[in-house]
């Protein structure tokens, strides 16, 4: 499956803070992938070369996106088996949404899921116990945290057999 991930550029202290939370609360994804924003969710219906060419075209001239995350929210998984804790940007939210929408134009238009909302986020936890996720979100929000970063590259990745591999990295303007 092909995806587009944005691994944000962060201060080392913020990266370490996120990873410490993820190591304890994100058993599904911690060992699989670094902190990231998912901009295109798994696609298996488009040829790799066409997918990469599309992402290159759609991101031509797109500027790097600065963001600041100050809030944790609890979101039910679309499968309803898991609940997630997302860190959602206050600043940069609309720019990330616009980039997501731009990527889902053209050949990816038919892949856009309209049954779930797109919420730009960095996932830091998940569980089958929604109350545990709520406790984590409350703990994080009580810390009055602030994580600032920049999305200046997008990775086109291949996900298969529980492995994520970057095929191409695209630099934003």
Structural features, described:
Helix content is 29%, strand content 36%. By secondary structure, the chain is α+β, with helices and mostly antiparallel strands. The protein has one domain: Alpha-Beta Complex (Cyclic Phosphodiesterase, Chain: A). The strands form 2 sheets. It has a 5-stranded antiparallel sheet, with helices on both faces. Strands 3-1-8-9 form a 4-stranded antiparallel sheet, with helices on one face. Strand 8 (153-160) and strand 9 (163-171) form a beta hairpin. The chain starts with a strand and ends with a strand. The relative contact order is 0.27. The mean pLDDT is 97.
Multimer state: single chain
Written as H for each helix and E for each strand, in order along the chain, the element string is EEHEHEEHEHEEE
What structural class is derived from the secondary structure elements? alpha+beta
Helix content: 25-40%
Compute the number of structural domains. 1
Could you name the CATH topology? Cyclic Phosphodiesterase, Chain: A
Assign the CATH class. Alpha Beta
Look at the structure and give the mean pLDDT. 97
What's the short story on this structure?
This protein is of the alpha+beta class. It has helices spanning about 10-25, 50-60, 95-105, 130-140, and strands at about 1-5, 10, 35-45, 65-75, 85-90, 120-125, 145-150, 155-160, 165-170.
List the helices and strands and how they pair.
Blueprint lengths: L1 E5 L2 E2 L1 H14 L11 E7 L4 H12 L5 E12 L6 E9 L1 H11 L18 E6 L2 H13 L4 E5 L1 E8 L2 E9 L2
Antiparallel strand pairs: 1-3, 1-8, 2-7, 4-5, 4-7, 5-6, 8-9
């Amino acid at each position: 499956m092909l995806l587009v991930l944005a691994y944000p550029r962060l201060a080392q202290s913020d990266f370490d803070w996120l990873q410490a939370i993820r190591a304890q609360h994100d058993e599904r994804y911690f060992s699989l992938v670094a902190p990231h924003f998912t901009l295109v969710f798994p696609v298996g219906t488009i040829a790799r070369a066409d997918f990469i060419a599309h992402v290159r075209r759609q991101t031509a001239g797109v500027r790097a996106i600065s963001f600041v995350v100050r809030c944790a929210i609890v979101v039910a998984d679309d499968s309803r088996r898991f609940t997630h804790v997302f860190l959602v940007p206050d600043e940069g939210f609309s720019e990330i949404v616009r980039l997501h929408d731009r990527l889902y134009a053209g050949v990816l238009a038919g892949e856009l899921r309209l049954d779930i909302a797109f919420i730009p986020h960095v996932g830091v936890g998940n569980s089958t116990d929604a109350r545990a996720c709520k406790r984590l979100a409350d703990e994080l929000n009580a810390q009055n945290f602030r994580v600032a970063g920049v999305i200046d590259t997008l990775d086109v990745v291949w996900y298969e057999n529980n492995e994520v591999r970057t095929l191409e990295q695209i630099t934003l303007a």
